[in-house]
Amino acid sequence: MSQQSEPIVDIQGLNKWYGALHVLNDVDLTVASGACVVVCGPSGSGKSTLIRCVNGLGSYQKGTLRLAGTTLGVNARETAAARRQTGMVFQSFNLFPHLTVLSNCTLALQRVAGRSRAEAEHIAMSHLEKVRIPEKAKSYPGQLSGGQQQRVAIARALCLNPRLMLFDEPTSALDPEMIKEVLDVMVALARDGMTMICVTHEMGFAREVADQVVFMDGGCILDRAPARDFFGGSGHPRSRHFLNTVLKH
Ligand SMILES: Nc1ncnc2c1ncn2[C@@H]1O[C@H](COP(=O)(O)OP(=O)(O)OP(=O)(O)O)[C@@H](O)[C@H]1O
Ligand SMILES: [Mg+2]
Known about the structure:
The protein is an alpha/beta fold. It has helices at 2-5, 47-54, 76-83, 101-111, 117-130, 146-159, 176-191, 203-209, 227-230, 237-248; strands at 9-18, 21-31, 36-40, 62-67, 70-71, 86-89, 164-168, 195-199, 212-217, 220-225.
């Protein structure tokens, strides 16, 4: 019972420096199971650094990070197991160009999760259907639009059955007409109860599904509020200013 009520992510006093540059400054963040948290803020504010710490791509010097009930960095095997509970989607898709869409999705299922090829293909097809692109299973990434590739990247991450999905500006490399198809998939995921941390400046998305919006600047979380309050204009002057700039575009 206590396992269930514990937040999926519990970050306390996280600090990271690159040399003299203090890129995460006493960051506290908890994400409850099933919640969708949107992280926004100006370029260089530490958004990517923060979510890279959550899935183990980045190190930190101070603070604690609990992920799915495990404090990272205490026991190597438990840390690796906790990190496998996260799926990550990047701005630049990062699909393997020499593999078909289906093989991109089945690779980790076979190599990491030890599934047979038939099982892996069955699981992969179910996720390709979820992101509405099963007909491209035999195509190569280079034959797909950016929006389609990003949906495949989401399906690939879902194949390993993550408890937490991390998105780092998943639509910012896309042409405007493709942004919606990716956001629609993310909205459906959030409504399905997936726990998500999304770095995005798509404020329509944030309004629609975010339980909490977090505003970062200079490595600090300056503002955090339920989406309704965040967009209600009652927050930190710096985040109000940022919001005005973003919403003008
Ligand atoms: N490998 C690195 N070595 C040194 N400094 C780095 C490194 N990676 C990031 N930084 C610095 O850390 C700070 C935070 O970077 P980060 O990528 O987290 O910002 P961000 O909020 O994601 O920005 P953007 O909106 O441009 O993606 C920046 O000042 C950046 O220059
Ligand atoms: Mg970034």
